[in-house]
Amino acid sequence: MADHERRHHGPPRGGQRKRRYREDDDYDRRQRRRYEEPLVVKIRRQLLTIAESAARRVEDDVVIIAKSVAENYEDEEVKHTFIDIVLSLVLEQPLKIPFVAATVLVTNSLKPELVSEVLKTTGESLQNHINAGAWREAKLILRFLGCLQCIFEGGGVFPVLEELFGRAVDLQTASSEDLIGLELVKIILFIIPYIMASPAVGFETQAASLLEKTDIIASTPHTLVDLVTPFGTENSGPTAVQSVISLMQSQLQQEANNGWELICLPRTWKDIQISEKPEEQKPWTEGTKHPFPELTVPSPVQKGSRAIFPEIYLSVYANQEFETVPPTSNIASSLLRDVLVDTINILDFNRIAAAKYLIDVDCYFAPHTFVKRATPFDKLRDIPGDHATWKPEDVAVDAVFSQLFQLPSPGHKLVYYHSVLTECCKIGPAAIAPSLGRAIRFLYRSLETIDLDLSQRFLDWFAHHLSNFGFTWKWSEWIEDLDSPAVHPRMAFINGALDKEIRLSFAQRIRGTLPDQYQDLITEEKEKDTPDFKYSLDTTPYANEGKEIMQLIRKKATDDEIEPFITAIEEQAKSLGVEDPMIPSTDALVTAICFVGSKSLSHVLSCIERNKERLLSIGPKSPIARRQIVTSVMEYWAGQPGIGINIIDKLLNYTILTPLSVVEWVLIDKLEAGATLSKAHVYEMISGTVGKVTNRLRQIVGARTQAGLYEPQLSVLDETLNRERGDMQALFKVIEDSLVSVAAGSHDELMERGDGSGNLPEDEILRQWGHRWLRVFRRKLGVEESFIVEAMASATPVGTEAPPPPSPREEHSMANAPGDGDIDVADADGPIEIS
Amino acid sequence: MTATLFPTVDRLDRPSAYYVGKNKRRKYSQDDTNIVEDPNDNLRNATTLYVGNLSFYTTEEQIHELFAKCGEIKRLVMGLDRFNKTPCGFCFVEYYTHQDALDCLKYVGGTKLDERIIRTDLDPGFEEGRQYGRGKSGGQVRDEYREEYDPGRGGYGRAYAESDQRQKEEEEYGKGR
């Protein structure tokens, strides 16, 4: 006991601390509670969480923060923390810009010197982003400055906007296909409303004259708009689509006519009082004025690393019984969408934070913009006519879908947007799930008209999303569609989605989630881990040889041991008059490999690896036999095509298959009058194969356009590029020709169906599949071609010789320069990457 | 371009505290070498992920299906029981690029596969031998002493389940009272 007590009073002794008794711990903890948060930590926390809580008045927090930084102006750490976090929030959490700006405005009335420093850092950052062509970041900083308009001398932000407009005009005049100019106009349009909702007064004329000028650029449809329209143009979809900037242009003009009401934007500054006796003083917003940070906008402006395409306004909540999202006639639709999309795309490094800010969207706009969170759709009926019926959940989810369904491709991998929706659902399952349900129903109803690539994205998301939530979905509501033909887009969706679900889980599990009417869709084949080996049946031609080959592959026999049986099949086939005897021998070999390797992907890969030489030798001898490889794989895995296409993908990496052979297999050998085009896994296989080709080409373009490249590497790379570009075009040509015949209904197989009239009910569906495929692959080719043209515009011309050898010291550093041309892309015949 | 001085929220594509902690300990235990090494250095270009908390029944195909959403997979190595050579609930996924591995941490780590929340961690790269569980009975260490029943990972901890030792101990404990 004495010993025990001594410990209480004695000084802590290093290693023994760990073995303390519990009482000691409690004793220590009481002491620690006296710890007080240092000022800088407190300010950081307050600023970072500004406007996040609906329980606190943001106006109070704004004043508290401004007062504490102003009072502690001498504290360097406090000052720098404030400046850095202001800028970080502007760039990373754009929803908070108006509130951060309000804090800076109040600070200006208390300590204008501090605001000078904020403006200096902000101006430098803006300049850097403009120089780099980082237009999203430039937009956000300009928006922040726009919220501060009242503290600037002269025109404030307007002269910069005018200058940006000048650059846009130059670019548009130079080329009608220009897209950077459009981006600049977009920036201008998305800054004006924030200036007009700021405390600054008397800028109506400037805003109106700028708007008048942007009209011609914003309202003219860009040539590429058709390319990125989510719904087919032929059958105009359920929603009319408009480009984001033309929509914003007309909404702003309407606002200008209504005295810039901009109802949804928060005006925190209005409810802030700093002085105790407000009547005595002039308004606090009329504090010290600052010169606008100096800026140089390069001419022409830089194109950043992000690819730019026209953007379309898409909503999955259009045309509902009640408006759950702002209609496109209201500027709130554009303002909310723009800032939410930026939030989503910026915060990809923390999807949980992204989801949280989306769910909190109602904190960052004017009060009463939305109905209460989690208000059920049916309850919107009870809301009086003059109140908004917008659901914050729908607005948030809609913004994620707009990115998931962005054409030609969104800013991040599709799975990022899946994960944001998953997190939203985790944060508020009861509020979000019904919103997702309505979105799913809208998309399902649109399946016949939506772009094929988007319907594939929908399918992929749907299955992945369900896999995160116990595979529960109200399948019963689609039962009546089960009677439609297999090629109907809805039936194709159901089959595709179930297949994807099984791939993430297993057949029996998925079967258990389905109503009776769906049970037949989960065939027995899908439940078999190891599909049957057809050569086990003696009735199968070449059954004996097939079995022998399988046994040899299982025993890891050498190619010499397999050879006699391959020859035996080919000789038998020849005697039977088979046109290409390599077809049955290839079938036996590949089927045996699939069967022996059916246990897992690694098993089949090691079987392929062991028989690589024989497999590689098939293609050069017979292109038809090479396509037989695809047939054998896909037939063996007919019940689980996902595994089949995975194997095909690996065979492409080994160059046992060529992209052309896969495309020809689908679009020539197995077209089935176009019916094959309705299968989700077939689309997946072809877009995966084409994706391999285009990725490789992009790698070559990357190598060709790197800086500091000279002859002879330039010519070698240029030749590779031209050859492979030709191959790519040839591949797209095969796709085009085959699809055109399906779309026109002139395909032989199509003509031979039924009475040959082409008027069977399914014939029209098949033609539609042809159209939808065509649209996708024409767009893919267009995107790739324009990528190459754009990238090559800045490439070193062929024939450029290296400058005279530098002095020995410099030479050493040259050897490590990135552009030494030592890149292994010239070897076109080698596999890109072998797994 | 978006990298700012003070990230306003944490990044999900950092090595886990587990990895950093493990490598720090190793650094301090070697008294002779005074070279201060950042434990994250060998992860700078890492393309491999350690994936944990898988069910023993999750197949390579299922893993492939999910992880390919972040990029083409170069290699997939299933974690196996050292003695039975059956899956024991972890794997290594190798991508072709570092960016794909980071994206996977950001977008797939912490989501569900086969209805279990999976864990992903950046890994310096697979080496022969690391595919086996390091637990006493052949599986992963965490499955030795688990007190909760986890049907996806062999029920109770093996140290208890294997010889019914747990039950025996409990009975003896009761007797002693």
Automatic annotation (TrEMBL), chain A:
SUPFAM superfamilies: ARM repeat (SSF48371)
Biased composition (Basic residues): 1-20
GO MF, one annotated term: mRNA binding
Designated name of the protein: Cap binding protein
Organism this protein belongs to: Aspergillus nanangensis
Positions of region (Disordered): 1-27, 277-296, 795-835
GO cellular component: nuclear cap binding complex; nucleus
Domain MIF4G-like type: 326-516, 533-785
Biased segments, Basic and acidic residues type: 277-292
PANTHER family, per the entry: CAP BINDING PROTEIN (PTHR12412), NUCLEAR CAP-BINDING PROTEIN SUBUNIT 1 (PTHR12412:SF2)
Pfam families registered for this protein in UniProt: MIF4G_like, MIF4G_like_2
Biological processes annotated in GO: mRNA export from nucleus; nuclear-transcribed mRNA catabolic process, nonsense-mediated decay
UniProtKB/TrEMBL annotation, chain B:
UniProt-annotated location(s): Nucleus
Molecular function per GO: RNA cap binding
Renumbered residue ranges of the record's region Disordered: 128-177
Pfam families: RRM_1 (PF00076)
GO cellular component: nuclear cap binding complex; nucleus
Biased composition (Basic and acidic residues): 141-151, 161-177
The RRM domain, residue ranges: 47-125
BP term (GO), one: mRNA cis splicing, via spliceosome
Gene3D superfamilies, A to Z: 3.30.70.330
Swiss-Prot/TrEMBL keywords: mRNA processing, mRNA splicing, Nucleus, RNA-binding
Main subcellular location of this protein, as a coarse class: nucleus
Protein family (similarity comment): Belongs to the RRM NCBP2 family.
Name of this chain's protein: Nuclear cap-binding protein subunit 2
Phylogenetic placement of the source organism: Eukaryota, Fungi, Dikarya, Ascomycota, Pezizomycotina
